[in-house]
Amino acid sequence: MTKLDSSLTAHVNALKEKGTAKGDEMVITGIVPASGSKGPRYIVEGHEKEFIKMNSNSYLGLSMRSDVIHAEEEGTKKFGVGPGAVRFISGTHKPHIELEKRLARFHGRESAMIFSSAYVTSMGVIVPLTTTETVIVSDELNHNCIINAMKLARPSAKLIYRHNDMSDLEAKMNEAVGQGKRCLVITDGVFSMRGDFCPFDKFVSICRKFNDRFEEGVTTIADDSHGVGAYGATGRGTEEVTGTKVDILIGTLGKAYGVNGGYVAASKAVTDFLKQTAPMYIYSNPITVGETTAVLKVLDILEGPEGVKILKHLSEMTQRFEKGLVDNGFETIPGPHPVTPLMVRDTQKTSEIVKWLTANGVLATGLNYPVVPKGDEEIRFQINADHTAADVDYVIDVLKAYRSKKG
């Protein structure tokens, strides 16, 4: 291993010198429950202070709820800590089937199937649906899972349109005609780095115009992992916000739902096909039954009156934080989604502000090139439903103090 270790170490050192290496992982050693006007606080190894977590994907703030924890414990007691096999051997348990039916119903689809993660879901959907005569059209800011899925799928042609530019999408669709029998048009629902979202109404309308120009039609696919459960009056994500459904919807159980796993909701023909052809499904264990029963409980909450209240509070806290940024002269990308970026547009300053936030008990994520394009450097804040008004105001005050001191 000596030669390989030397080569790998040199690669990591080069990343560090360029400033593109990932930072050290923070280790959370404990959670202090919400109390009074304060939401939960997190204990981080090597730090004495408690932290507000402003970089969590758990948008509904349900992962520490006693009833969700109880549901997971009951599922584990009944079926054990792991499935013990892939779905086609003996890994499928009744709660897995129940969850797939619930997810299909939640999104108004014929069928759904769960995967071990949303990243794997995108890979497991796009690759099998791509033939040697398939053209893929994709938004330039789509998530890494979509980019890697396209590389693995090796379509006959790949066309990239400018981010959320529907005129450019139509131009690329015209260009795609004649390059394959099947066309897959793929987008994120919510774009995780920015919090903006694809206008599904315009997106789907353009794609439908080209359906008859491909022998096997045009299929719209959206990975709405940051959208499902997180916004819309009832948590149906970007489809609810835009009033339009795509053909194939990919979602996650590991963000708003606060648990683990991914899923696809589509026609039964699509899921029947994927169960026979998606290696990421066929050769991987499903999520545990405990995780499955926890998600079922989250869906109970989300689909009831309490879910409406939680989403309303999440929306209010998002608006409060966004307004606080704007009122104090910070640049953001406005929108209803709880991802609220502070656009810094400078690598060094981004790192400096993150250090300031950490020193003042706030966990937030700085995003620099190549994670985001040069000039789009930012700090991504993510509002959760267990944040309070006092939490939001405190973070704004910390940012105001930075501006007063640093300018």
In spatial order, strands of the major sheet run 4-10-9-8-7-5-6
CATH superfamily of the largest domain: Type I PLP-dependent aspartate aminotransferase-like (Major domain)
Shape: globular
**Major beta sheet, specifics?**
7 strands, mixed
Task: Tell me the radius of gyration.
Answer: 22 Å
Strand content: 15-25%
- For the terminal residues, how far apart are their CA atoms? 50 Å
Structural class: alpha/beta
CATH C-level category of the largest domain: Alpha Beta
Roughly what is the average pLDDT, rounded to an integer? 95
Number of strands: 14
Question: What features would you describe in this structure?
Answer:
The protein has two domains: 2-54 and 304-406, Aspartate Aminotransferase, domain 1 (Alpha-Beta Complex); 66-302, Aspartate Aminotransferase, domain 2 (3-Layer(aba) Sandwich). The protein is globular, with a radius of gyration of 22 Å. A hairpin with an 8-residue loop joins strand 1 and strand 2 (41-44). Helix content is 44%, strand content 16%. The mean pLDDT is 95. It has helices at residues 2-18, 66-79, 87-91, 94-106, 118-129, 144-153, 166-176, 200-209, 238-242, 268-277, 279-282, 289-302, 305-327, 347-359, 389-406; strands at residues 28-32, 41-44, 50-53, 111-115, 134-139, 157-161, 182-188, 218-223, 248-252, 262-266, 339-343, 362-363, 365-367, 378-382. By secondary structure, it is of the alpha/beta class. Helix 2 (66-79) runs antiparallel to helix 12 (289-302), helix 5 runs parallel beside helix 6 and helix 7 (166-176) runs parallel beside helix 8. It has 15 helices and 14 strands. The protein starts with a helix and ends with a helix. The strands form three sheets. A seven-stranded mixed β-sheet has the order 4-10-9-8-7-5-6, with helices on both faces. Strands 1-2-3-12 form a four-stranded mixed β-sheet. Strands 11-14-13 form a three-stranded antiparallel β-sheet, with helices on one face.
